[in-house]
Design brief:
alpha+beta, homodimer, seven-stranded antiparallel beta sheet
């Protein structure tokens, strides 16, 4: 039984030719994937599998995952853009892994090379299963792209080892990983192999999580480890790991945001595979909790530096936002899986919000530098160094360098997120110029999408079934859109709206066009009054794009800028100065004249206001010029 | 040579009978001083001097200072309100100290009882001279109040020991304390004894500070201590201790705010004693740096939790403000000493601002609970516990309990801050109903002040020289005041304004009255646009009192409240509900109606505004009801 109603149309069946995305994907392929490899090599991550005492760059316990995500990204890239050199690089790494793998299937460079007797003794902290999960995803991707089995076989052997090691049978460890990932990877593997063992192992890890007595406590006791809880204020609490209680009891997004996002994604996938309504209800609760209480306007999640974690409800500070790039990516994953279970546009809305804002802000336009944290305002000052996670510039690499390869693999597989299909319907979730071949009841339908989205709200969809047939085309009406029109073959048509999708049911013949126009005005956005950090402020959004003001365009004291909310006087301009084809927005604003403050910090309100035309640029392209102030939320004027 | 132009009129010559202050001083005497003693006793601070192995409550290295400040407060109190029981308590403690003092004069409970061989080996961290300084202040106060010499003699012996131990002669340690305090204490002692040795020792400690090679480095090396710098981001830098460079080179207020305030106070006193213009210029630079870049509107200083320290310029966050009560007190001390050097009203303005706001907020109205940090906005939530210094309620005591006794000693000596005198002038700095006997060229002048300040701007000063004489009465025109009138014997008079003081020069006969009226409207205040945390916001101030809004009066979502800055519609009301005689201010405000937010955090601006009458109360009486939201800065509407 499979509760999944909407089957993703995999990117292998989708060709993207988009004025916005194609240059980004080219940059990803030409710059990001190579730069991730180069840094992985330089820092010892590649050679970790052949490390020997005396060599520098001792393996680190999460390095395997970085390389695995690079392989996954590279494999996706290969599928669309064959590249012998890249394939050789992957094969080289696979060979190293094959040579390193132990006879019993175990594969982890850190433990094999440094602590062979300690493997599986600290699931809480040491990321062994997390690394395994990313390796599995890499192996699935590489097999799918090339048909080469070596890496997949290595991982199947490792998964067998993991299956033998973990479970509820006598002699097995009743553990699960402190950093979720292996669960969703096993579900991907199951989709490839159809082997129930893979499904059951994922199911075991998910269901065992948070059971009492807590495995992490048992394990820590065995190690004689008592020092851990200082980080959590001295209290034994496993919320950080989403392991304080069994997963079906979760009702608030808590703890490390990336771990949470990966777990929730796996839970949604498992619910689909096993028709588990209770688990699906849990996922809905958690999604709603994020959506209505814990998500930045950029789709960023996890506002706290401490634990890279979700803070309490409605606590989304801007300048010190953590909002890790990987966390926004995990929200894309989670939304994508929820959308497979339930065709509600809100899931695609969140996916789109995160993708176009909080994910894309994570990578520079040249694809070679990255944000780990994605703050919503910036005040670069050496004195801000204490908040060392907040950088005014993207960095080339990190000690903990999870984000670069994560962006790379998401972009390289972007095609998968555009379309889904049901039994007799095609679902259009994202608006990206592309063509897709989608099978509807044995009838191949070519969908060809043309748009200048996100800069323009016109979308043309050409629907070409091989044989004329009746089916539904379901087009998402974005949550940001208040007014739109839909025509088929130039004429207004009847359609219903169900859960945010326009359902166009008719008999389709080859080459019939749907013309959609989403009106896309620049819009002032407000935040829930409980979200204290944004009270008294507004943000500018147009279509899915959240805007920000930068010092480079507007000078200093951005915190003092107020938008004229009554007469914003928006002018929407094409602006190629930072990114070709991008759209800037100009608005009426004012700030205080900076005069007469010598020798005092406070005085009766007497400042004159200076009116000026504020220029806002898309948030995701901020910090591509010299470092300066930035603000998404501006005062109401 | 003494550069001090303005001699303070000591509180022994001043009687306060004030509707605002007298109840506060009574509470200080009846509740705060006893509660500090009770907690000191309960926690082992009193018995530290007779601690023996096996007893609980091992002495802690800064405990002596807490007891010393209690003695100082109690001594000031005794002077005005003889109390045999209190005097016995002090004598008991003095006896314990006398018994504990070593033959060579050394006196520190922590080192004597626990580490006798380690004394003077860690001046950087261990507060020995800091404790000595507070004990000296206590001894000076107790001798002045009672004429009893025992404590003073103990301390003179200890100071002799310190004099022998520290200095530039062969065999002496060229050290100084990591926590300044002994410097200003020695200058007080010098004012009592006239013994040059005491002046010279203070001078040595001040001048040696920050010289190269740095004593703290030398000392740490001797101890084999290398672990210290993690706290400071791994960099060897002594700004935290104001010891990165010699004091005359200081130009920015940096490091631990209380230490800085005490050092600057000592520097100002030393400049006065030694006519040291370079040192005075340094003090002016530092004062200006605080005034124009580093002070909260409440007079709080030291915004950072990390190191209880000054942050960089214009970095004064509100919700997580450190703004330690002791730091505001140190600013009172520093301003007070600057005012002795230079009769500029700005010093008295700062003194007044800190006193009526950031100091008085540190103690509850019943005098039995205290804030260590004094944030400018509060959002009580268990999730805010990570910022553990920010409390929504005053606490009865602290592990590091410097603030309670510090408030107590300041209030018990408040009379000293009201008047100063020059050769032929009387200076009125603070407006507090009181009478003072001030000698002008051998002619005793009785000044009698009557006012309902800070609730009302009318001040009546009756000037009664024993013999009619010509001299000046200099009345401070507060920085907050834009309009005022001054009459003598009911008639407008001619007066000049010099550095913010109205100079009334005439021949005075007994009983002549000066009637001053400072117009005291409720006023909206803005902050420098560089102060990003207050941009887009205003505060309400009336006279010297900074106001705040509390949840108890205004409901939740205070962050969303906007004041109508164009038509504030202020109504100033007497309001006895929290504090008898206090004045509340009502103003036009609005906030968004809280509707329609289910399932979303962001939406196009469409909220309706709800107008309401905001009630603001004096900041210093916040949190005297049940915990709730509070905000000093409110949005501009």
């Amino acid at each position: 039984m499979n509760m999944r109603k909407n089957i993703p149309v995999d990117f292998s069946n989708v060709e993207i030719r988009d004025s916005f995305w194609s240059p980004r994907l080219d940059t990803n392929r030409k710059n990001t994937i190579p730069t991730v490899y180069a840094w992985s090599e330089k820092t010892g991550r590649i050679d970790a599998w052949k490390w020997k005492p005396g060599m520098k760059n001792k393996p680190h316990h999460f390095w395997d995952s970085d390389v695995a995500k690079w392989i996954e990204a590279a494999a996706y890239s290969l599928e669309k853009n064959p590249d012998k050199n890249l394939e050789r690089q992957i094969d080289h790494v696979v060979d190293l892994m094959g040579a390193a793998q132990l006879k019993d299937g175990y594969l982890n460079s850190f433990y094999i090379k440094l602590h062979p007797k300690k493997r599986w003794t600290n699931l809480r902290d040491m990321h062994e299963l997390y690394c395994a999960g990313h390796l599995i995803e890499g192996a699935v991707a590489y097999f799918t792209a090339t048909g080469k089995r070596k890496f997949l076989d290595i991982m199947l052997k490792y998964v067998d080892h993991i299956s033998r090691t973990f479970g509820r049978k006598p002699g097995q460890k009743r553990g699960y990983c402190g950093h979720e990932e292996v669960e969703l990877a096993l579900l991907k593997l199951y989709n490839l192999t159809g082997d129930k063992k893979h499904l059951e192992l994922a199911e075991y890890f998910i269901n065992e999580r948070g059971q009492k007595p807590n495995y992490f406590s048992i394990e820590a006791k065995k190690r004689g480890d008592t020092g851990h809880w200082a980080f959590f204020g001295g209290k034994e609490n496993y919320d950080y790991y989403q392991a304080e209680k069994p997963v079906r009891q979760l009702d608030e997004a808590l703890g490390h945001a990336v771990r949470a996002g990966y777990l929730y994604s796996a839970m949604a996938s498992l619910a689909a595979e096993t028709n588990d309504k209770a688990l699906f209800e849990t996922c809905k609760r958690l999604f709603d909790n994020i959506l209505s209480k814990k998500m930045y306007i950029t789709g960023g999640i996890g506002s706290k530096k401490h634990g890279e974690a979700f803070s309490y409800e409605y606590d989304l500070q801007n300048e010190t936002a953590y909002a890790e790039t990987c966390a926004a990516i995990s929200l894309v994953f989670f939304s994508y899986r929820m959308l497979q279970l339930e065709q509600k546009s809100v899931y695609a809305d969140v996916m789109e919000r995160a993708l176009y804002n909080g994910v894309m802000s994570g990578v520079s336009l040249d694809g070679k530098a990255f944000f780990y944290s994605n703050p919503l305002s910036a005040y670069p000052h050496p004195g801000n160094m204490l908040e060392e996670h907040v950088k005014p510039e993207r960095q080339k690499w990190f000690g903990c360098s999870c984000c670069p390869s994560n962006v790379a693999r998401l972009l390289a597989s972007l095609g998968s997120y555009i379309y889904m299909k049901g039994e007799d319907e095609i679902r259009v979730n994202l608006f990206i110029s592309s063509s897709a071949s989608i099978d509807i009841k044995g009838n191949p339908v070519l969908v060809s999408q043309k748009t200048n989205y996100p800069w323009d709200g016109s979308v043309s969809l050409e629907v070409s079934p091989q044989t004329p047939a009746e089916f539904k085309v379901c087009v998402r009406i974005p949550g940001w859109c208040r007014k739109y029109s839909i025509k088929v073959k130039g004429a207004n048509i009847k359609f219903s709206i169900v859960n945010g999708y326009a359902i166009i049911k008719r008999k389709w013949s080859s080459g019939e066009k749907i013309e959609i126009n989403f009106e896309m005005p620049a819009t002032l956005v407000e935040a829930d009054p409980r979200l204290r950090h944004d009270c008294g402020k507004v943000a500018i959004q147009r279509g899915p794009i959240v805007y920000c003001a930068e010092e480079a365009d507007n000078g200093k004291h951005l915190y003092d800028v107020a938008i004229d909310v009554t007469h914003p006087g928006f002018v929407v301009n094409s602006d190629n100065s930072i990114l070709k084809g991008a759209v800037a927005i100009v608005a009426n604003a004012c700030r205080r004249k900076d005069a007469g403050w010598k020798g005092q910090l406070y005085r009766p309100c007497e400042s004159k206001l200076e009116k000026f035309r504020l220029k806002a640029i898309p948030y995701f392209i901020w910090a591509n010029r010299k470092p300066g102030e930035m603000a998404v939320w501006l005062n109401r004027g």
